[in-house]
From TrEMBL:
Cross-referenced InterPro entries: SoxY, SoxY_sf, Sulphur_oxidation_SoxY, TAT_signal
Protein name in the entry: Sulfur oxidation protein SoxY
PROSITE patterns: TAT (PS51318)
One Pfam family in the UniProt entry: SoxY
Highest taxon of source: Bacteria
Amino acid sequence: MSKLFSRRRIVQGLMAAAALVAMPLTAFARNSEAFGLGDFAKARSTMFGGQDIADGSDGITLELPDIAESPAKTNVKVKVDEAKLGALKSITFMAEVNPTPISAKFYFSPRVEPELETFIKLAGTTMVHAIVETDKGLYSASKEVKATLGGCGG
């Protein structure tokens, strides 16, 4: 076997590839226990360690449709006024009636614009919460979304 393709080099390459593949799984694993909880209050408490979450509706703009035409893909937009609430660290979306209430959590670096647009899945008509973590604390804004097939609000 040539020196380029020796057993040792192949094993080293496989180990390096395995480490690279495994890294994102551990580097981005955040509070997996909270993501698996089915109860809204328990998931919220576990995710945020029982910290107080203040009303942030004066500094958080939460845009959701009144009626979700497709609950499987509901558009949500959040904009944070950092002058009022402080530097943005993360945004967590939670839907009260979903089987797993925590829909998503996004982390922000200091140079990123403090806004986000994404899609979340809803299990039915529910309150959707955007919980914002800043350097000053935790803040929340909420909105009820009626989830109906085809957007009929009846």
